[in-house]
């Protein structure tokens, strides 16, 4: 199958490497210097250092050429840009009159300015596109790049999109499950990043494993309340893209969002943390959007509120934890 991966960050690079084992895969980035480096060294030293990419993977700096590669009905376009870059990429496809027949995106979060989920951005910019969906689940790019086992879910209303994604990705150490709850999968992928910051703060303050378990469990309740209100199904949040992704991101040492929380607890400023991180931490980008949506729907999300207070309101991490502990007792 011809597959184009748009976006050469850590996740896009890892997925492209996996895809190239069994498909005619092209990895696109707008940075021509990065493409030159990838072509010569077969390693993404900026985002995925130490992971060798297969010789069969090809690289492209020309978006039109990458889109043309994924144009056929038997091809697939994988959008691996952050949520912040999704709308611009869709507009570039539309303006070039080269919208692929089948599109699957792997970004997680809400668009900060509009508070829209990725499928809503796609619908706004590529109105009437018949075959698109989201691929998500508990996954660190480095482990996928190294060929370690991983299980993901593709959610789409389109059977054709699910089939193309399954055919492209389901091989080797990667197992793909299918479903149609796009909203539930996207909400899980967005909110778990905010909750991972909270868990990082708790761990950084040395609050113990009891506190970590409580945060993950009550965080899952917050995620589920929001997701069901927005149209997702409750059972989605106990699956790979809900509980599974939350556990990984909240506890794994490779988690960027958990790292943000750990360093906030250590007294570092958010600006310094993000500058040193060098990668996108989607939980920071979408935390305010999650809280705004929750308030608009009168949904209680106290952990999310506490994270926003630390990130944006100057509240000390330990004070935010104390505020959570002072909340009135209630039925679970």
TrEMBL record:
Output one GO BP term.
glycerol-3-phosphate biosynthetic process
Q: Which residues bind substrate?
A: 108, 256-257
Q: Which residues form the active site?
A: 192
Primary localization class, coarse: cytoplasm
Listed under GO cellular component are:
cytosol
UniProt-annotated binding residues for sn-glycerol 3-phosphate: 108, 137, 139, 192, 245, 255-257
The compartments listed are: Cytoplasm
Tell me the GO molecular function terms: glycerol-3-phosphate dehydrogenase (NAD+) activity; glycerol-3-phosphate dehydrogenase (NADP+) activity; NAD binding
Chain sites annotated for binding NADPH = 11, 30, 47, 108, 141, 256, 280, 282
Catalytic reaction(s) noted: sn-glycerol 3-phosphate + NADP(+) = dihydroxyacetone phosphate + NADPH + H(+); sn-glycerol 3-phosphate + NAD(+) = dihydroxyacetone phosphate + NADH + H(+)
> What does the UniProt keyword field contain?
Cytoplasm, Lipid biosynthesis, Lipid metabolism, NAD, NADP, Nucleotide-binding, Oxidoreductase, Phospholipid biosynthesis, Phospholipid metabolism
Q: Which residues form the Glycerol-3-phosphate dehydrogenase NAD-dependent N-terminal domain?
A: 2-160
Q: Does the keyword Lipid biosynthesis apply?
A: yes
Question: What are the binding positions for NAD(+) in this chain?
Answer: 7-12, 141, 256
Enzyme Commission number(s) from the entry: 1.1.1.94
Q: Does the keyword Nucleotide-binding apply?
A: yes
| InterPro entries noted in UniProt | 6-PGluconate_DH-like_C_sf (IPR008927), 6PGD_dom2 (IPR013328), G3P_DH_NAD-dep (IPR006168), G3P_DH_NAD-dep_C (IPR006109), G3P_DH_NAD-dep_N (IPR011128), NAD(P)-bd_dom_sf (IPR036291)
Record-annotated Glycerol-3-phosphate dehydrogenase NAD-dependent C-terminal domain positions: 181-321
Q: Could you tell me what this protein does?
A: Catalyzes the reduction of the glycolytic intermediate dihydroxyacetone phosphate (DHAP) to sn-glycerol 3-phosphate (G3P), the key precursor for phospholipid synthesis.
Protein family membership: Belongs to the NAD-dependent glycerol-3-phosphate dehydrogenase family.
Q: What is the designated name of this protein? A: Glycerol-3-phosphate dehydrogenase [NAD(P)+]
From what organism does this protein derive?
Trinickia violacea
